[in-house]
Design goal:
Blueprint (H helix, E strand, L loop, with lengths): L2 H15 L6 E3 L7 E14 L5 E4 L2 H6 L14 E8 L2
Antiparallel strand pairs: 1-2, 2-3, 2-4
């Protein structure tokens, strides 16, 4: 899903429910648990396959750390992505 597709779906939901509706995310694809959405952020995503991959800080984020070399740089094939984090 792209950010534009997500925004389109969220706009439809907001129109039907209102902007103060709680957002809940699934803990896994099977729906084995749910929790409130805590945060959305931009980071780098390197896909390992069609279903999963690794998160890396953006280069700006990495360089802003006191010890940037403590963090692996994103691989060349990583792309900027929106990450949604649950409360737990």
């Amino acid at each position: 899903m792209t950010l534009d597709q997500l925004i389109e779906q969220l706009e439809v939901l907001r129109d039907g429910l209102g902007g103060d509706t709680l957002v809940i995310v699934s803990k896994d694809a099977e729906g084995n648990g749910f929790g409130p959405l805590e945060e959305a952020e931009i980071a780098m995503y390197a896909a390992e396959n069609d279903y999963s991959g690794e998160r890396y800080p953006t280069e700006e984020e990495r360089q802003a750390e006191p010890n940037p070399d403590d963090y692996d740089p994103a691989p060349d094939d990583a792309v900027r992505a929106v990450f949604l984090w649950p409360t737990n």
